[in-house]
Specification:
With 469 residues, this protein is of the alpha/beta class. The chain has a single domain (91-466), classed as Purple Acid Phosphatase, chain A, domain 2 (4-Layer Sandwich), CATH 3.60.21. It is built from ten helices and 19 strands. The chain has helices spanning 19-44, 103-113, 127-132, 162-169, 186-199, 266-282, 304-316, 418-423, 436-451, 454-461; strands spanning 66-69, 72-75, 88-99, 135-140, 174-176, 203-205, 216-221, 224-233, 244-245, 248-249, 260-261, 287-293, 320-324, 332-336, 343-347, 352-354, 373-384, 389-405, 411-417. Strands 3, 4, 5, 6, 16, 17, 18 and 19 form an eight-stranded mixed β-sheet that branches. Strands 7, 8, 11, 12, 13, 14 and 15 form a seven-stranded mixed β-sheet that branches. The chain has a two-stranded antiparallel sheet with strand order 1-2. Strand 1 and strand 2 (72-75) form a beta hairpin. Helix 6 packs parallel to helix 7 (304-316). The protein is globular and about 115 Å long. Residues 1-15 and 45-72 have low confidence and may be disordered.
Amino acid sequence: MNSGYRRAPQPRRNKNNMLPFYCFILVWLLVLGIVFLVAHIRNSGTEGGSGTDSADGSDASPSGTTNDLGGGDQTTDIIDTEPPPVTYTDATILTAGDIIAHMAQIKYAKAVGGDTYDFSNSFKYVKDMISAADYAVANFETTLAGPDVEYTGYPRFNAPDSLLDAIKGAGFDMMLFANNHCYDTHFDGFLRTQDQFVSHGLDYIGAKKAAGDDAYKVIDVNGIKIGMLNYADDLSGGTKSSPTVNGIAIKNGEEAYMNLYNPSNVDKMYDEIESIISKMRSDGVDFIIAYMHWGEEYTLKHNSFQGNVAQKLCDLGVDVIIGGHPHVVQDASIITSSDGGRKTLCFYSLGNFVSNQNRRSLENSTNSRYTEGGLIVTVSVRKYSTGEVVITKAEQIPTFVHTYTAKNGFYAHEIMPLAEATADPSAFGLDNSSYGVSTSKEVYGLINDVLGSTVQTFNETVADKRETP
């Protein structure tokens, strides 16, 4: 007898009883296939969005989605390749020419203002234009030594402090003080003038209160950092003897407080400017303007020295050069750097903004009729969010000083934009003299002839910068 364990006989399985099982498996596989197909279609159809849908219909995170089907993971990362939109900010810098206070102007200011010396009448036709600019600059070619020092005109200028009230009221923000008249009342007047700039809320460059102060300014205009510097020819004629300015000997090393250069040692100025530009760039400056007091008085075209200095400034990285001193508008040019990598727009002289110089006061002096006109220049600077900074437009605005005998018997001096004034003479008071209309039209033509088409040509070269890239 076998005592080992024996499995009991099992009944044979009928194939017909297996049919439900096979159907269940088939249906399950069909369901899984549909699920995978839907997930694939949803993932491949999601474009440019911040996320995708999971297989069960819930929102996945922006970085991707994970579907858990039978223990398998599927991760899809959505990367937004759309670049951010390019934006920009604009700033308009306005610059006018020489502000000079001759005795005829001082006498009129006293006649209408008494002890306050009211100069505001000179700016009434241009103040809206000046105030509309984001930042406005002019050359201050006199000194403010105070009421205890006699008020004087040419050749040693000293004006009442209230001249700055009119200048500030007209909308100016900065005065240029590197010029041949900055030392007319010697060091005390030189320092006091700077104090008056500060007390009237005006920036200034070209002079310092301490020898170690910066010789430049960085001004933030609508988020664009504008670097500005100002230098003047000392008018020594190139001599290397004791320093002078306008024929006045500068005492005790006081030249260290002034941004002056001697034409016989111009390399010294170049070294200083190169160092200044390096500091500006380290300060994050976007755009650089150099204001130069140079050239020969009453000449309509720049000389070779001005051209050489302008070329060097272009090579050093200056974007715009604006000059003064000749008391007439001079030509303009587009300068290409020596390496061909940049272009600099240069206005060699803006002429007089306001003065008593005209064909009558200067009689038959050469080009005296040109001294009645001047130039306002506006430069529109744009900074893109990419960091690129460009000039989008430059504009030249010829001006005219209408000098006529007012009812009080003194000479009024009224600055006006020539395009508008010649189009509507009575609105600008040009009929207050017998010569106002004819003279203003003549001066308008003279200035346009001197400038030519340089600014138009420049604007054509930067036309593509006026649209967002």
